[in-house]
Amino acid sequence: MAEYRPGLEGVPATRSNISFVDGQAGILEYRGIPIEELAAHSTFLETAYLLIFGKLPTQSELDNFDQAVRSHRRVKYRIRDMIKSFPDSGHPMDALQTCVASLGMFYPVQEADPDYVFVTVTRLLAKLPTMVAMFHQMRQGNDPIPPDDSLDHAANFLYMLSGKKPDPWLARVFDTCLILHAEHTVNASTFALLVSASTLASPYSSLATAVGTLSGLLHGGANQEVMKLLRQIGSVENVRPFIEEKLARKERIMGMGHRVYKVKDPRAIILQKLAEELFERHGHDKYYDIALEVERVCAELLGPKGIYPNVDFYSGLVYAKLGIPEDLFTPVFAIARVAGWLAHWREQLADNRLFRPTQVYTGKRQQRYIPISERS
Ligand code: COA
């Protein structure tokens, strides 16, 4: 019998040519292009196209794709009414999962031909940001801010959140964050999506599965927890005693450690540089100093186990500085990861086989049925 590996660690679940990770060398590539190059030169929508369609678009392909995404930004009034009935205190990830699942009732599933794939991916890329911003406005009792078609993907999301057109440099910072979060091989949410897609569930249902899986604290939910941690620590002097106590209680330090990376996550390196530049240009932030000290102390205490900052460690600091509320950090992750999920959805359908793993049975066998009157 095959060896049981808890958490399927190291077990290949699929063949994929979408992204590549080397956890020892700290390398991440999308379709063979290093993440550092994409962060420096690409845009989120261009990267999404690369991930989903397997090549960098020509100018006219990119214009067409961008235009299609812009044209799908608005959501049905029934979705708006549904969001209005959500509890204000509900987590935005739960709101997003519900909204994504509901799309399946509006858009019929078809044969996955190129036209259907194109309309589905542009629709989903476009609508997730609108639905996140809409929930955020409506939970505060405001009317949603309609998308502005003159703004690009990143700027439009920040605009729908705040009602103000963002500074172009800040919108570019946000767009880079979306690139960094767009794809990461067969992580938990992508695996969940693959399982769902393999049953031929609708793309909306498959995406909703992925959104739900991303929400967990050990996955996308960690970015929100990092800011909580930095606030609890409160000062640079308090970092060492706080971390030592936490580790003595066998608790985890959020934003640290990764199943694959045993060195500092390359995305954390880029995000840290972005955070540094952001604080230089737009005012210092004491939480950045606390984060640097947490990284130093953790390198000493957890580094020998191969535990270093992951993508979530610095992203929250950047999002907070961009004025994004803490409980939207994980939905923002989803707005980016939808690109990778859709690339995997397409790849799975191109060579589909139903996922149906096996188990190591550890229970009893051949038991007698005991009538209720004889049970003790
Ligand atoms: N803080 C403290 N200890 C940690 C840790 C962390 N963030 N991450 C892992 N460890 C320790 C575990 O306690 C365990 O120690 P032990 O061997 O002494 O029992 C060891 O490292 C291995 O942990 P394990 O849970 O088996 O590793 P994993 O590969 O399943 O962990 C994560 C991957 C991401 C789940 C884990 O690192 C984690 O919980 N990180 C915090 C949450 C987070 O930031 N998630 C976002 C990931 S992008």
Could you describe the 3D structure shown?
- The protein is mainly alpha-helical.
- It has 16 helices and three strands.
- Helix 1 (35-41) runs antiparallel to helix 8 (168-180).
- The chain is globular.
- The two termini are 37 Å apart.
- The site of coenzyme A (COA) has 17 residues, from helix 15.
Largest sheet: number of strands, sense, barrel closure: 3 strands, antiparallel
In the predicted model, the low-confidence regions spanning at least 5 consecutive residues are none
Reading the helices and strands in chain order gives: EEEHHHHHHHHHHHHHHHH
Shape: globular
Q: How would you classify the helix and strand content by structural class?
A: mainly alpha
Report the portion of residues in β strands.
Answer: under 5%
Secondary structure: number of strands:
3
Average per-residue pLDDT, rounded, comes to 96
Strand order of the largest sheet: 1-2-3
Bound ligands, each once: coenzyme A
Task: Please tell me how large the radius of gyration is.
Answer: 22 Å
Range of helix content = 55-70%
Q: Summed up, what is this model?
A:
The chain is mainly alpha-helical and 376 residues long.
Furnish the topology, listing elements before pairings.
Elements: E1 19-22, E2 27-30, E3 33-34, H1 35-41, H2 44-53, H3 59-71, H4 77-84, H5 92-106, H6 114-139, H7 153-162, H8 168-180, H9 188-198, H10 203-214, H11 222-233, H12 239-248, H13 266-282, H14 286-301, H15 311-321, H16 329-350
Helix pairs in contact: 1-8, 2-8, 2-16, 3-6, 5-6, 5-10, 6-7, 6-16, 7-8, 8-13, 8-16, 9-10, 9-16, 10-16, 11-15, 12-14, 13-15
Coenzyme A binds near residues 7, 253, 259, 310 and 312.
